[in-house]
Amino acid sequence: MVAADLEGPYELAVRRADLGLRVHWCVLPFRVLLVLTSHRGIQMYESDGSTMVYWHALDSGDATPVQAVFARGIAASGHFICVGTWSGRVLVFDIPAKGPNIVLSEELAGHQTPITDIATESAQGQDCVADMVTADDSGLLCVWRSGPEFTLLTRIPGFGVPCPSVQLWQGIIAAGYGNGQVHLYEATTGNLHVQINAHARAISALDLAPEAGKLLSAAEDSFVHIWKLSRSPESSYIEAAPLL
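Structure tokens predicted for WD repeat domain 54 (244 residues):
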């Protein structure tokens, strides 16, 4: 059992669910950490939850008195763990093979509004490969290449609707939006290939079965849909076929 530090008031203008506890297993090449985020900070535990190995308090220095301070969006990339924040910055933590000597190595500044989600996939040693995507409350997506220094490859503009959830699969970005649409983009170029009117209300979450290439979307309309993702062998164009 892990006890999260959740003391302190919540801002009246923000729903508890929007800022509340987020939990993610981060599978690194040499260890697994359990990462928790809240409006107070970021906690990292050993995989069995027995020991907290790192605590990072959130800095509210630039926040206005009515602005919520929180961390949201968690993903592992190589030996790094990336966590999004209320300010739009993404914190990159360098994780050692063992022990508590975790270091905040970088802050990525591609966004101007709060981060909603982060997705990664293994680059498998390839150069110039987009292996991380970050999303925010304006719907903006930033595509990154991870490494000792993270590199911003491209921005995919938003259109005034939040993007609560993103996934990354074989160079394809799947983004779920507050208007119920799912968009599929080419990660390296940011080109839109598919626009799906998937739900009647806002997308709550996307998930992937990477081996099968199946994308699941869940939304506030209470429906869940499953899509089969693929690339056309002739044109390499991204395709999505509904399964459920």
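The chain has two domains: 20-59+67-109, 112-243.
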